[in-house]
Amino acid sequence: MTGPIRTHREGGILEVTIDRPKANAIDLKTSRLMGEIFRDFRDDPELRVAIVTGAGEKFFCPGWDLKAAAEGDPVDGDYGVGGFGGMQELRDLNKPIIAAVNGICCGGGLEIALSADLILAAEHATFALPEIRSGTLADAASIKLPKRIPYHIAMDMLLTGRWLDAVEANRWGFVNEILPAERLMERAWERARLLESGPPLVYAAIKEVVREAESRDFQTTMNRVTRRQFRTVDTLYSSEDQLEGARAFAEKREPVWKGR
């Protein structure tokens, strides 16, 4: 696929590249397109893992396209099926996603990265929530970031808009790995292939339980798991893959996951 979003599919892995010169900023049209891409990724049983990155070497994504806003795109407009950037409000997105941050990652771009399950960063990547300087709210980041990193660091970023380099982002725990720029995508594909080889039904159950646990206490969530009240958990516990895992362990061989 060409245009503001490029996709590349290889086996069960989908690579999604934001490609809107000069900075990979996202307008309403691009956000809606991303929503369609991630919805199709979610619904395609052959796809197991996604990688999201930015084109070029300078920008991952700075978020909302202020030039498009100045030309009439409303900030509260129709971002599409998955909300801004296609991922963060997409229901039942129960497959692993890797963000490969290849440069500046700020505002809504950082919110997109936070919607991924793993974040890999090039050594020159930088992170910020500069919305405060534009007199607006980093809405999704205000909800997510204080749950991901220490509260006071999150509030520092939200209240001041200051920039973090990749080393500090890694220190506070929202970047998994820092890599030389030339190794970033190679490593993202290594991690994606590892995940592609894993049990998709378990991944789905992990993502649903983790997501739902954010708004529930421990015992309530555990009760829902043990009573099979999560759809993904019920599917897993009744699956061929559940039996395959036990059999492979007993037979001292690698399991063959079928996703059913």
From TrEMBL:
Which of UniProt's keywords are assigned here?
Lyase
Any Pfam family hit: ECH_1
GO BP term, pick one:
fatty acid beta-oxidation
Q: Which GO terms describe its molecular function?
A: lyase activity
Record's keyword annotation contains Lyase? yes
Q: Which domain of life is it from?
A: Bacteria
Q: Which family does it belong to?
A: Belongs to the enoyl-CoA hydratase/isomerase family.
Query: Per its record, how is this protein called by name?
Result: Carnitinyl-CoA dehydratase
